[in-house]
Amino acid sequence: MAFVEFARGLKVTLLTMLKPPTTVQYPEERRVLPERFRGRHALHRYENNLERCIGCFLCAGACPAECIYIEAAENDPANPTSAGERYARIYEIDELRCIFCGFCEEACPTGAITLEPIFEFSNYERGAMIYDKAMLLDQPQVAEEAAAAS
Q1: What's the CATH class of domain 33-149?
Q2: Strand bridging mode 130-131 / 113-115
């Protein structure tokens, strides 16, 4: 009985050894990400340049890691920042605490926040991984677009 199990394990090892390696020469060659990959957060605007975020706190409430911090402020009717009565004066996401579950994206009623297919964000300092509103509103380039641009 033990020999049969040993032979099965050895068969798997031998079949794996005969396959070609799946090494990707990163960053020159990039692997194709799955369609539903969840990476870096991004805040979006409407076509008229108003922010989509209305400061409703639904994304922060849905976040199991509690990595989203929002401070809302009343919108100025003469010079509105967003389409709603309020806007997010401060919007921060601690990317190191985030578990990239996508609950914030699902909870947002205006589609203000999305998880983009970008996984290339690293830093040597913890403070740089807390993304503020300005960093989130700047539209990041998707890896394929960045590779094609260079």
Answers
A1: alpha beta
A2: unpaired
Q: How far apart are CA 37 and CA 115, in angstroms?
A: 8
Instruction: Report the DSSP beta bridge partners of residue 135.
Output: none
Torsion of CA 42, 49, 46, 107, to 10 degrees: 40
Pairing of strands 113-115, 41-43: antiparallel
Express the helix, strand and coil content of the chain in percent, nearest 5 each.
Answer: 30, 20, 55
- What one-letter code names the amino acid at 81? T
φ and ψ at residue 22, rounded to 5 degrees: -110, 35
Which residues, other chains included, contact 32 with Cβ-Cβ below 8 Å and sequence gap of 6+? Answer: none
> For the whole model, what pTM was predicted?
0.76
- In this structure, how many other beta carbons lie within 10 angstroms of the beta carbon of residue 2? 6
pLDDT tens for 76-135 read: 989 999 988 999 999 999 999 999 999 999 999 999 999 999 888 888 999 999 999 999
Summarize pLDDT for 9-32 with one digit per residue, the tens: 899 889 888 888 888 898 898 888
